Amino acid sequence: MDTKLTTAQRGYGGNHAKAREQLIYNLIDGTPCEYCGQPMYREAGRNFDGAALEADHEEGDKTRLANRLLHRRCNRAIANEWVKHGPGWYQLQVGVASPIDWPGGRVIGLVAD
Question: Name one GO molecular function term (predicted).
């Protein structure tokens, strides 16, 4: 017996698809991802994870429309555990090891206060 829920049952129905479509339409290519700081692009192959951008529900609240785009890897990494870090939380650190080391050679670390 398959108990896998449909996308609509998981909160990703037609309204979610329309919200994502609108977010993609309004995206300026190269806009930084709020989670990792890497640039986001409409074309999946240009994103660091090679995947299409995903629409995210702020604070994991699926009763509201998705209101931002994230890389697929970022969106799935937070899985309803979103934390607002604010601007300047991420910093590009060339040649410095960090707990967040993304493919493509860009290392992102915390900004010291």
Answer: endonuclease activity
Q: What is the pLDDT of residues 29-68, one digit of tens each?
A: 999 998 889 999 999 999 999 999 999 877 666 667 788 9
Q: What token pair was written down for 1?
A: 């017996």
Instruction: State which H helix or E strand residue 70 sits in.
Output: strand 68-70
Write down the domain spans for the chain.
14-85
Question: Whole-angstrom Cα distance, residue 51 to residue 44?
Answer: 5
CA distance 90 to 74: 14
- pTM listed for this prediction: 0.63
For residue 76, give the 3-state DSSP assignment.
helix
> Minimal CA–CA distance to 48: which of 26, 30, 60?
30
